[in-house]
Specification:
One of its GO terms (molecular function) is sodium:proton antiporter activity. InterPro entries: PhaG_MnhG_YufB. It comes from Aliidiomarina sanyensis. Helices cover 89% and strands 0% of the residues. By secondary structure, the protein is mostly helical. It has one domain. Helix 2 runs antiparallel to helix 3.
């Protein structure tokens, strides 16, 4: 069971690293947002799955899942706001 936990946590960390590389390497805002949100949400989900077997109670497990769900919501809202801001900026630049 511990080996499976290490695999999930390692994969989650790998997805975080891939998201960071995508943030640094991709050329425009939209591809950066896509890489970052997808990789980070999946990375956090894998880490939560890896941590769930080691929690002491159901309440602690539910807190982990709730944190992951809140991060999913916050991440999608933040990505939307950044993308909308970029679209508005592009529109203003085109109308000049």
């Amino acid at each position: 069971m511990m080996i499976l936990q290490y695999i999930f946590i390692g994969l989650g960390t790998l997805f975080f690293a891939i998201g960071t590389i995508g943030l640094l390497r991709f050329p425009d805002v939209f591809t950066r947002i896509h890489a970052l949100t997808k990789a980070d949400n999946l990375g956090l989900g894998l880490i939560v799955v890896g941590l769930l077997p080691s929690v002491e109670s159901v309440a602690q497990g539910m807190k982990l899942i709730l944190c992951w769900l809140l991060v999913l919501g916050a991440s999608s809202v933040a990505a939307y706001l950044v993308a909308r801001s970029q679209v508005q900026h592009d529109h203003e630049e085109a109308s000049k």
